[in-house]
Amino acid sequence: MQRQKLAVMASVNTESWPEAAVVGMVVTEDLEIFCSTFRTSRKFENIKNNPRVALAIGWEDGKTVQYEGNAVDVTDDESSELLKSRLASIPSIAKYLERDHQIFYKINPKWIRFSDLSVDPWQRFEITF
């Protein structure tokens, strides 16, 4: 997971409709995910009302991770600066990091499934937190 830089994040709006978007991310050794969005985005409104999110990570070579967790605001400046520096290594994300209406999230894992569909039989394992 730590080699991946992008994921598809799903959140749910106030009418219970799912909404998905690609996000740049950083994964810690504790399997926490850090990402960012704008305060003007649908994702921001969704997470404000319901912090539960799901992510699909990696899809190359038949290997993928399904990840469910709760998103919380990163409020301390030191963590925000560290996150900015790590996300800056992702070219498609770097240009958005200095916007005033940027917000950073830490996603705490609740359930993770790794699948390797490139082998026969398929390999899968799950972690519940």
UniProtKB/TrEMBL annotation:
GO cellular component, alphabetical, reads: cytosol
The transmembrane residues are none
Domain Pyridoxamine 5'-phosphate oxidase N-terminal, first and last residues per copy: 2-113
Does the entry feature the keyword Acetylation, yes or no? no
What the entry lists under InterPro entries is as follows: F420H2_bilvrd_red/Heme_oxyg, Pyridox_Oxase_N, Split_barrel_FMN-bd
Keywords carried by this UniProt record: Oxidoreductase
Gene Ontology molecular functions: coenzyme F420 binding; oxidoreductase activity, acting on the CH-CH group of donors
The molecule here is called Pyridoxamine 5'-phosphate oxidase N-terminal domain-containing protein
Organism per entry? Candidatus Doudnabacteria bacterium RIFCSPLOWO2_02_FULL_48_13
